[in-house]
Amino acid sequence: MDCIFCAIVAGQAPATILREWDDALAFKPRGGVNDGHTLVIPRIHVADATEDPNVTADAVRRAAQYAAEIGANLNLITNVGPDATQTVFHLHWHIVPRAKADGLLLPWTPQHAARAAAAQTGDTR
Ligand code: AMP
Ligand code: ZN
Fold first, then answer.
1. Best of 5, 88, 104 to mutate for ligand 1, by most ligand atoms within 8 A of CB?
2. Cut 0.90: pTM above it
3. CA 104, 96, 110, 85 torsion-angle sign
4. Mind listing the pLDDT tens digit for each residue in 35-77?
5. How far is the CA of 117 from the centre of ligand 1 (A)?
6. With a 6 A CB cut-off, is 15 part of the ligand 1 pocket?
7. Which of 5, 84, 113, 119 is the most buried (most CB within 10 A)?
8. Binding site membership of 30 for ligand 1 (Cβ less than 6 Å)
């Protein structure tokens, strides 16, 4: 199987490793959205967060442990499938530290704002 994250786990592809556990790894994504952007992945290969809920839970436990040390607001998110913007098909949790007015948007931010405004005015189109 050709999986870049499995290659990183195996030490066969370069990565800036930030933390290692027996079951997971934290490293810097290539071209992260900010300096603190971190990925947490299980060592075993699962394609996404729906493939094996136990692996998902173990990996997000590690991500939460890591995120708790950051001491900032953050997004802890994962994408499932290309339509949801997943591009690497080895489960990964994104940790993105956030600051007020940092300019980062979630993919649904514009629609969320528009629908919230429409709900207020009673326009539910
Ligand atoms: P997603 O769109 O949720 O699948 O996120 C994929 C993440 O993997 C992005 O943050 C990419 O920057 C990151 N990424 C892709 N290839 C590599 C790589 N070779 N080394 C480190 N991070 C990578
Ligand atoms: Zn993999």
1. 88
2. yes
3. positive
4. 999 999 999 999 999 999 999 999 999 999 999 999 999 999 9
5. 34
6. yes
7. 5
8. yes
